[in-house]
Amino acid sequence: MRLYKNTYKDRKGRTRESAKWYGEFRDHAQQVRRMPLLTDKAASGEAGRKIERLVALRASGDVPDLDLSRWLMSCPQQITKLLVEWRLVDATRIAATKTLADHLEDYETDLASDGNTPKHAALTHFRAKRVMDGCRFRFQSDVNRDEVKAYLSKLRKAGTIGAKTYNYYVRDLKAFCKWLVRSSRARENPLEHLESLGAKTIAQDPSAKRRAFTTDEIRKLLEATIREPTRYGMSGLERSLVYRLAVETGLRASETASLTRVSFRLDDKRPAVFVAGSATKNAQSADLPIRTKTAELLRGHLKLKLPTAKAFAMPPVTDTARMIRADLAAAGIVEPEGSAYVLDFHTLRHTFVTMLAASGVHPKVAQDLARHSDINLTLSRYSHTVLEQRGEAVDRLPDFDKPADSEGKTGTSDAG
């Protein structure tokens, strides 16, 4: 390979040399190729010798050995791109030398640039990486369907994920592997036949059940959290305020994290918070009323923040459950071992709608505040008090076990 430096004219017309060395050689088809190498001449010469070996291997139909594969893995992207373009190496072979962690970073970037929300891209990356790390997969060749299935089953058995979440993991893992094939990083999808759980299994799954917090539990949580130390980058006071806001508005963790100073209208006659459609589950903007006392607390919390600053230093969505469980434990609110119920940040929203029903709010108003498209979702999934209220109504019926004359005669007169 011939090494040389390009020359060019600068703005003042002076002849200059390029910072990088260039290499000129003939490829396996005897076509002259020129490519930029490195700024160091010795390193460029070494790269040139590696490329000449690749040319010889391509001409003989052989594949790169371990030494060349490692060099390709550490090679500047500009060089490997040209080597793939000139068909001196297979794109999938270069991709195979990259770690799964590197591929996942590229995948997250690609998802975000393809119109997906940053939240979706980050959550998809988190799920795929969690399984790859849990299975101790480092390279594409390590990925194995049976090991992935066993790891997900282990998470579900431990109660870490439910049946629905199991299926979300399967979906995101398969999508990642499909992307590897689509982007010429892999020849086949090793998880193509990884199966989701069926509808019957999901319907029978107890792990996703939530109960509402009692009023006393909410009071204990808010009081105890204020005294707790900083967790996940949030002070106890700030976490307590976030929990209060969530249980009084039904805001989800991701929606709360999206709020900025200007999301709040605290000086209006009816204080409110605006949530943009880009942050809501149904992609529709929402204007939610805030109680007067909570508005006062928020005013003090937000007074020194810039208009576009985040209202709360919320951790990633994946950490909010751990955060609130630590605060619940500090408040002495822990489900007994073997309980089918889950206590997490979403339980605050669950509690919000349940307490609306308990306070006698009309179901349509509760549906509007919960931002549900179907009123049956409001009543059946959240409003545990409905059955209790029905029971209380039935209990108020007359006691038919008392003697017939114990409460005096009723009905029409006996006079004929």
Folded structure, characterized:
- Strand 6 (about 265) and strand 7 (about 270-275) form a beta hairpin.
- This protein has helices at about 40-60, 65-75, 75-85, 90-95, 100-115, 120-135, 145-155, 165-180, 200-205, 215-225, 235-250, 255-260, 290-300, 315-330, 345-360, 365-370, 375-380, 385-395, and strands at about 1-5, 5-10, 15, 20-25, 30-35, 265, 270-275, 285-290.
- It has a 3-stranded antiparallel sheet with strand order 1-4-5, covered by helices on one side.
- Helix 15 (about 345-360) packs across helix 17 and helix 16 (about 365-370) crosses helix 17 (about 375-380).
- It folds into 3 domains: about 1-90, no CATH class; about 100-205, Orthogonal Bundle (DNA polymerase, domain 1); about 215-390, Intergrase catalytic core (hpI Integrase, Chain A), CATH 1.10.443.
- Mean pLDDT is about 85; it is low at about 410-415.
- By secondary structure, the chain is mainly alpha-helical.
Record the SSE blueprint:
Elements: E1 2-4, E2 7-9, E3 15-17, E4 22-26, E5 32-36, H1 41-60, H2 66-74, H3 77-85, H4 91-96, H5 100-113, H6 118-134, H7 145-157, H8 163-182, H9 199-204, H10 215-227, H11 236-249, H12 253-258, E6 264-265, E7 272-275, E8 286-289, H13 292-302, H14 317-330, H15 346-358, H16 363-370, H17 375-382, H18 385-395
Antiparallel strand pairs: 1-4, 2-3, 4-5, 6-7, 7-8
Task: Sum up the structure in keywords.
416 residues, mainly alpha, DNA polymerase, domain 1, hpI Integrase, Chain A, 3 domains, three-stranded antiparallel β-sheet, 8 strands, 51% helix, disordered C terminus
